[in-house]
Amino acid sequence: xxxxxxxxxxxxxxxxxxxxxxxxxxxxxxxxxxxxxxxxxxxxxxxxxxxxxxxxxxxxxxxxxxxxxxxxxxxxxxxxxxxxxxxxxxxxxxxxxxxxxxxxxxxxxxxxxxxxxxxxxxxxxxxxxxxxxxxxxxxxxxxxxxxxxxxxxxxxxxxxxxxxxxxxxxxxxxxxxxxxxxxxxxxxxxxxxxxxxxxxxxxxxxxxxxxxxxxxxxxxxxxxxxxxxxxxxxxxxxxxxxxxxxxxxxxxxxxxxxxxxxxxxxxxxxxxxxxxxxxxxxxxxxxxxxxxxxxxxxxxxxxxxxxxxxxxxxxxxxxxxxxxxxxxx
Length: 329
Hints:
This protein is α/β, with parallel strands linked by helices. The protein folds into two domains: 34-117 and 220-320, Periplasmic binding protein-like II (D-Maltodextrin-Binding Protein, domain 2, 3-Layer(aba) Sandwich), CATH 3.40.190; 122-217, 3-Layer(aba) Sandwich (D-Maltodextrin-Binding Protein, domain 2), CATH 3.40.190. It is built from 15 helices and ten strands. It has helices at residues 3-7, 11-25, 46-57, 59-62, 75-84, 95-103, 150-162, 174-182, 197-201, 229-234, 236-253, 258-267, 271-281, 295-304, 314-320, and strands at residues 34-41, 65-72, 89-90, 108-116, 122-126, 141-144, 167-170, 189-191, 205-210, 221-228. It has a five-stranded mixed β-sheet, with helices on both faces. Strands 8-5-9 form a three-stranded antiparallel β-sheet. Strands 6-7 form a two-stranded parallel ribbon.
């Protein structure tokens, strides 16, 4: 046997091997992160600010996403940004506005549940107010954030349950609402942790109602995730990565104290207050990304408030929820 010929490596083969080795030794070029424009509401709320904490932790970077997050005062602002395409994803607009937009054939798609139940929200009065409960609110003004937001849905449901006729007023965020209540412009304000908790402890205000007080609200999805229909059709792979990042962020936020510390520092409260807000007002199950809970109650409320002209058919409900949970598999 001609061993010299068997072991001989010709120039062409030698070049190919050398090139392969060189390629193997060269550093791999990391894929650039894809940018996504995100709009969320009420910076400082646990559920709507988790996406920021996940960004700071590097969770979304691990999914090759660079999030540009802007903030609004409530659902209608988020929804309008999604409809116009000026943002790629809305974190937690209210389901009432989403249902109304769907019926009007606006270019929106609901991708996930964002908040189920209303354990985070409460309504309050000044300490000296004669109002002891919502049953005392005939002819009074009751605050919610913005039209189409979950606070409008919940306030309306609570008023119906109390059997009173009160005037709902959009007052913006919790800070602005607190000012209006304390100055006497509004009879009943709304809030969520941590705004108002210090005033309650100091005896300056009293909580008269909580979000889950009315029957059915604890199982009702009141806020959702929303994207533009065109973005869904053209960039669904980004939504898949975003959804996985959101789920990972939720798991991380309830697995230790790192997110709690971020939350406490942002809201300038101690870690005990932050922990109470998370564990009492935002149980992990409430932030489940699927399914949409008790949508029949939301539809009935939307019809009552004239946000829907009539109840959705089973086929329409199936279409409205078609993408919920799609990107979590």
